[in-house]
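help with this record:
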Amino acid sequence: MSADNTFTAAMVQMRTSLLPEPSLEQGIKLVREAAAQGADYVLTPEVSNMMQLNRKALFEHLASEEDDKSLKAYRALAAELKIHLHIGSLALRFSPEKAVNRSFLIGPDGNLLASYDKIHMFDIDLPGGESYRESANYQPGETAVISDLPWGRIGLTICYDVRFPALYRALAESGASFLTVPSAFTRKTGEAHWHVLLRARAIETGCFVFAAAQGGLHENKRETYGHSLIIDPWGEILAEGGAEPGVFLAKIDPAKVVTARRAIPSLQHGRRFTVADPKAGPEHLHLVRGSA
């Protein structure tokens, strides 16, 4: 970490396997590569431990947070490399019937600094026949999470959360300078929306956005978009991956957050307002929206 409070962030792009063991081997290799290139903070993608769509196979390989071997290994790796290691998410056992999609921020001593359960479930039917029902297997979270890094506060989110801007505004209003969006975007939705959504979240909050992604054709035949991104508070892309696994780094200057928010202080300008529907009558004119 530099004396001027800048730091190097690295996005680890993976192509997670069906099983935790080969996924962990891949993840450790790439995290080591990031640290060797000078990364102070490293983020891995959503479901870094396994990409399973089959419910039976998923639950056969799930472990609880306390017993998960991947989490233990990543905690030891963070301590060894003396880095802030952010595991974008792991699929973990929540109950006999439900898993949880949980993100972990690990400190340079190997201790857990924060964890976050994905709030918004990816339940959609895409053109062309692709269909996903994340809520069938996963228990959604209910709480937004913010944590402290040596360089500023960081807000934790996961993938489909990015389509719900109120979450990101709330994190920014709570002091976040960095927002994380570890993801496993489909190729179809990624091509259409990935860059636009992530740049918008950066611009509207005046935050850096860190988005490590899954990329390529997986063993389960799901194709993810890749294109891991680091975006500055003005919406500029500082680093970007392609479709293949790899490591993508950028130097982060937290002072850019202050500069962007001074230029466009929209976080200070939020107001409460009502949505009026004259056809519904005056008793329906008081639906409150917006920010306090």
About this structure: The helical segments are 20-36, 55-61, 69-81, 165-173, 187-205, 255-263. The chain has a mean pLDDT of 93.
